[in-house]
Amino acid sequence: MNNDIEYKSAEEIKSFQEGLLKEALEYLQANSKYYRRMFQKCHIEIDRIKTIEDLQKIPFTEKKDLQLFNDEFLCVPREKVIDYITTSGTMGDPVTFGCTEKDLQRLAFNEKKSFSCAGVSPGSIVQLMVTLDKRFMAGLAYFLGIRELGAGVIRVGNGIPELQWDTIQRLKPDTIMCVPSFILRLIQWAEDHGIDYKNSSIKRIIGIGEGLREQDLSLNLLGRRIKEKWDVELYATYSSTEMGATFSECPYACGGHVHPELVIVEIIGPDNMPVPDGEVGEIVITTLGVEGMPLLRFRTGDMAAKITQPCKCGRNSFRLTPIVGRKNNMIKLKGTTLYPPALNDVLDNTPYVENYVIEVLDSDAGTDDVLVKIGLKYEPEFDCVKDLKDRFRSRVRVAPRIEILPVPEIHAINYPAKSRKPVKFVDKRAPKHV
Prior knowledge:
By secondary structure, the chain is α/β, with parallel strands linked by helices. It folds into two domains: 1-325, Rossmann fold; 330-427, ANL, C-terminal domain (GMP Synthetase, Chain A, domain 3). 30% of the residues lie in helices and 22% in strands. It contains eleven helices and 21 strands. 38% of the residues are buried.
């Protein structure tokens, strides 16, 4: 703990990061075809970028740059790449990342810190309910981090509640890691099959890919529903392939702790300038210590805010609030600005909804039109469309259009052949021209 930069003062952390930034810029100048060209084109002299504030002199890297010039971001010979990863394609075509041995060690270090932050320790047993294949970085990173921490790992993979419970009963893990909405399926399966899940070995659930908290850090509908059913410790995380890092909550549950030795985080507003601490903006990251494909001022598209007040756990690095949503997925519905996670939260916690997909289209009036397609778990005795609209109005003040469809039809949309994640949001709006 005494040597961990997260426990140093904010001034020491900033100075430490600026030293690593200098090294990162020199590495990009020497090894990155893409950034070398960008420095030259924009007349950027890297020795004049001395502080984190100086980063504002450098253009952003965007997803389209990675898609168009993917090979030019690779900073090592191909033979040095030992693992190939692709992004999930949330914002378009997937992007390939090449990882070296050093990059995998960095991933392991990151996840070791994140799991430790969430209370996992040597001797813990973690059941991974995520995929380790399909070119997916996260599952591999979790495995490497748990191994580095000295905890036990059970690689079960995603889905299949019966197999998950069989494993829990046989091997008695104390921690499970999965998409939070899957917990509700686990609970339902346990209740249907007489499993006393409340007295199982599980003491901790670490969620990935879905939010568990509101911006004020209280549990959201999904988090509350899990907690009411199963009184275990809940931890939310934020991660992305591009930054090769995960920010986890600590037991005080007051935001995801940023690891300063691995990434520099900026929060920018609509004018592309930093917003005040505590204000929501887009997360922009600069990776530190990445050898294969480091990134400089990469726009993640994710919206969140910095929390700079000291945490009770003793860490002084700032934290991130729960993700509000993706910038490109912002919806303007009947004069109200919202993001898909707010709609997901309502749908994931409606007992008669089996599955769903949210479609956003252009309306004749030039605004956004939202259609929610629902598959029903059972036919309620009341008007479920009216009930759903009331639920939406209660949560987000407006109600989208709702269409009831057969469960298999929705399932086919949720799980296309090549997708690693369920597709619950489809944006059919025409591209915005700047």
